[in-house]
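In this section we walk through a basic example: taking a raw amino acid sequence and producing a predicted 3D structure, encoded as discrete structure tokens. The instruction is simple. Fold the sequence below.
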Amino acid sequence: MTPFGSQKEYLVQRVLNASPVELVGILYETALQAVDEALAALQSGNIAATKCIQAIAELRLALRRDVNPQYCDTLSGLYDYMQRQLMRAHSDKSGGLLREVSRLLQTLLDGWTGAMRNLSAPKEPEPSEAPEEMAVAVSGMNPYAAAGQSSRVRSWQL
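The resulting token sequence is shown next.
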């Protein structure tokens, strides 16, 4: 198997085994890599932003308006802006526009990666009682109290 073939096979396996959350991260990585490739192609006089435009279109399709419509509208607008910038970069052969989209994608990828990390981090157990209630409960446990005597009433409080 050629190095390119093994890389392609790895990517296929990664996509097939990824959770929906991981797939979004893969799409961000793909779009970012495509912008980097377009920047490299621009140096040789060509520009190819199609792959990045397609990756951003997939990101837009992955938005779940049923979960948070306002957030989805904001991201959809940002994706639309990035796609328009890529089209302008293609027609104007502009490295500046490509770098702008690259920075935006990197910010989104960093945020998404952080969110994935937070989702996979072990959760700290939430206390079932407020700290004051816990302190009363702990201090109220008096093994020396007489049977039937309330542990909250102290002898000096009588």
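Looking at the output, two observations stand out. The chain has one domain: 3-121. Residues 101 and 151 are 66 Å apart (CA to CA). In the next section we compare this with other chains.
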